[in-house]
Amino acid sequence: MGPALGRGPELSKSKKAMAKKLTLLVIHCTDTPAGREVSSDDIRHWHTDPAPKGRGWSQVGYSDMIHLDGTVENLVPYDTDDEVDLWEITNGAAGFNSTARHIVYVGGKGGDTRTYLQNVALFGYVQRTIAQHPDIKVAGHHDLNQGKACPSFDVARFLRVNSIPKKNIYKP
After folding, report:
1. What is the pLDDT of residues 16-61, one digit of tens each?
2. The whole model's pTM is what?
3. Is the Cβ–Cβ distance between 62 and 29 less than 8 Å?
4. What's the total number of domains in the chain?
């Protein structure tokens, strides 16, 4: 894994005061074909390289990534408090980033390509996040930005089927 692109937890207390409450966990896909692995370096290039090769963002779009084998890789460090500090902000969904954490699974091009191990890892990730942040809402990227297919599956249904409490399911 390459170096994280965040500023890190060494920010001053005055900048910490600018933090906002963590309210959303947003699920994404890399929009790559089934079975094609993606590296953290790929994500960094796609998001932070200047156009036309990348998007030219100052930060990647996701906090963590779930690989095909179910391994969860941290892309941007974050702490476990209930705030999104400036150094934790990723660029996953315009208008929601300052209050959200973003998780991406590798795949999703043309439909739901999650492997069994990715599904297990995603469920565990959602459960741990809710345990740490009981009031958080979980959404798919498509729930926040209409017209997007990402993450290529019905997140609300996935959450209901896996007995995630209704209070944690985002309603657009």
Report:
1. 558 999 999 999 999 999 999 999 999 999 999 999 999 999 999 9
2. 0.89
3. no
4. 1
Q: What is the CATH number of the domain that holds 136?
A: 3.40.80.10
Q: What's phi and psi for 154, nearest 5 deg? A: -80, 100
Return d(Cα 156, Cα 26) in angstroms, integer.
12
Q: Does 76 reside within a domain?
A: yes
Task: Tell me the C-alpha distance between 73 and 116, whole Å.
Answer: 17
CA atoms within 13 A on the CB side of 163: 1
Question: CA Rg, the chain, in Å?
Answer: 15
- 3-state SS, 63-80, equals CEEECCCCCEEECCCCCC
> What's the sign of the alpha-carbon dihedral 65, 70, 71, 77?
positive
Q: Encode pLDDT of 101-127 as tens digits.
A: 999 999 999 999 999 999 999 999 999
Specify the DSSP class assigned to residue 124: H
Q: How far apart are CA 67 and CA 40, in angstroms?
A: 10
Q: Nearest 5°: phi and psi at 53?
A: -75, -35
Parallel, antiparallel or unpaired: strands 83-84 and 100-105: unpaired
